[in-house]
Write a structure and sequence with these properties.
Distance between the termini: 16 Å
Largest sheet: 3 strands, antiparallel
Oligomer: single chain
Shape: elongated
Radius of gyration: 19 Å
């Protein structure tokens, strides 16, 4: 497979990732506990979880918890899609040389 075709495939995958994130991206909000670090929170699904009282594993499809993190999933997937598009562009340039 030539580099141009592989670059086009990676561009297509990156574009699909960006489209899916735009359509189905999770809502998030900034948490202002510490002014020096920026933290985010969002609601996420956790179908498997361990109960802290009984220490037993549970399973439920609709189990939703509040997740905190440094970078929200929407920004993470946007950067992954941009990385695929950039890598595909570079492969297309290398294939033309």
């Amino acid at each position: 497979m030539s580099l141009e075709i592989l670059g086009l495939i990676l561009n297509f995958i990156g574009s699909l990732i960006l489209i899916f994130v735009t359509l189905f991206g999770k809502w998030h909000q900034i948490k202002y506990d510490n002014p020096w670090t920026k933290r985010y929170w969002w609601m996420g699904r956790r179908p498997f979880w361990k109960n802290t009282q009984t220490h037993k594993w549970h399973f439920k499809w609709n189990h939703i918890v509040i997740v905190e993190g440094f970078i929200p999933p929407k920004h993470l997937w946007n950067s992954i899609g941009f990385f695929f598009i950039t890598l595909g562009f570079l492969l297309q340039l290398l294939g033309l040389m």
